[in-house]
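Handout, page 2. Input:
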Amino acid sequence: MKIIPEIKYRHTAAAAVIAAAASLASGQGFAQCPACSHCAPAVAVKTNLLHDLLITPDLGVEVEIARRFSVSLEGVWGWWGSDRASHCWRVAGGWLEGRWWFGRKSEVRALSGHHLGLYGSIHKYDFALGSTGRQSIGCTYGAGVSYGYSFPIARRLNLDLSARAGYFRSPYVKYQPQCGEFMKLASGVRQYVGITDVEITLVWFPGAKSKNLPDYEPY
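Output:
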């Protein structure tokens, strides 16, 4: 049997998403003209509450384009484990998604109402909750479509309920801890078609006073 070598993990994608969100929250980025507080693209910072509940913190940024379209970048990172107990709950990666917004709600408020999207994803993982574990070999790639509905719950807050469906391909290795080492049991490639993600996402439009308000008609 082959001993799996130790793997060192580096995650720059999640750090980039966090840095972008911090910049937007501080008011940098898109400047709006004094005459109209709604002529610049709306920018939102968001987190999928379901991922957060699974102890895999999630953070994303979404930018409106010409009212009916948007681009979303979302990252997830959770790298928890106990070598002593041989338990791991580790996943890191992200999604890039383009969305089309439609319906009456999207005509009066940015990033609101029904939306359809196309996405691509990339992830790494290592899960071991019992006597055996599974670890990705390299990266898992996926692509597909999404649908959701976003509605306001406060002046600068939305709640977005959505789901993704598509395809992913994941080369993996199955292993088992033995005598302080991780022994390879099997390897293969998992291919899947179906529901790939479900989201209950809290969406925040950062800004002060009239800056970056999501409503197209000023208060």
